[in-house]
Amino acid sequence: MSATSSVSLNLPSLAWTSLSDWQAIAVTGADSKSYLQGQVTCDVVQLDAEHSTLGAHCDAKGKMWSLFRLFHHNQGYALWQHKSGIETALQEIKKYSVFSKVDLELSSQISIGVLGEQADSFIDAITDGQGDVRSVASGSAIKIDSQRWLLLIDEGELDNLKPQLQNAEEISADAWDYVDVLNGIPRVIQSQQNTHIPQTLNLQALEGISFEKGCYTGQETVARAKYRGTNKKVMRLLQGSASDKAAFTFERQVGENWRGAGEAIAQYRNQQGEALALIVLNKDIEFDTQFRLVGDTTNTWSLVELPYDIEQ
């Protein structure tokens, strides 16, 4: 593999956006740590208050109900995830909570993304401490990567932050999707709940699975995929062009024919029509395989490299 993405985004040095498609499940109570430890793929016990981790919650067969970023938040934890399937995700992860001293509920706080090369400096100015997770106003600031922070705060706090944001450009949430897709960060949307195991979306390569912790729901399948090589699918990055932002569904070329290749896990399209998509494919697919959007016989898509090793 040698191809890298040529789809670019001119990101301001400091920008912010409302991430209205994202929400958190708030977890509180004396047993919150132990309860989550028995439910999710990541190691909650080892997670300190200054860091976040990706993780997933699965059914007994290892299929994911949700994929989230987990961090300490307001005397408990937050599981921050795509909003489309969050009500089902909440129902599933709280299923056994009646046996523990733990409360799980949808957070009413809003999600604000801060982006750009000055994002770190902005967060330093509004918070104390040096961690990747910090207290701010009514909530938390969470570092996502070198140029992105998430603010999970009460809605009223945004007005209080507006003076500090006066030098930041308000931009579309598409920019957040662009960085997620380019960096190969998966999500589980409503239509794909209970469909994939964590390794299919490369969660092991993103340190979202602990193979050292004790039992959790779906662990047997997740462990078997690692130690017996039973997982035959992985998430790949595609690049091409699209006429609109409708959900991307792909076909792949097989000889002179085209066969269904599935729906995008996440996608991005810029104003010029250049586009990126994350999609689940067979592990052994040839890197020079050509793809196209269903209904578009003119433009072809190709595989490009992800910024991490999916064979981990």
From TrEMBL:
It comes from the Bacteria. One of its GO terms (biological process) is iron-sulfur cluster assembly. It holds the Pfam family YgfZ_barrel. Residues 231-296 form the tRNA-modifying protein YgfZ-like beta-barrel domain. This is tRNA-modifying protein YgfZ. It comes from Vibrio superstes NBRC 103154. The lineage of its organism: Bacteria, Pseudomonadati, Pseudomonadota, Gammaproteobacteria, Vibrionales.
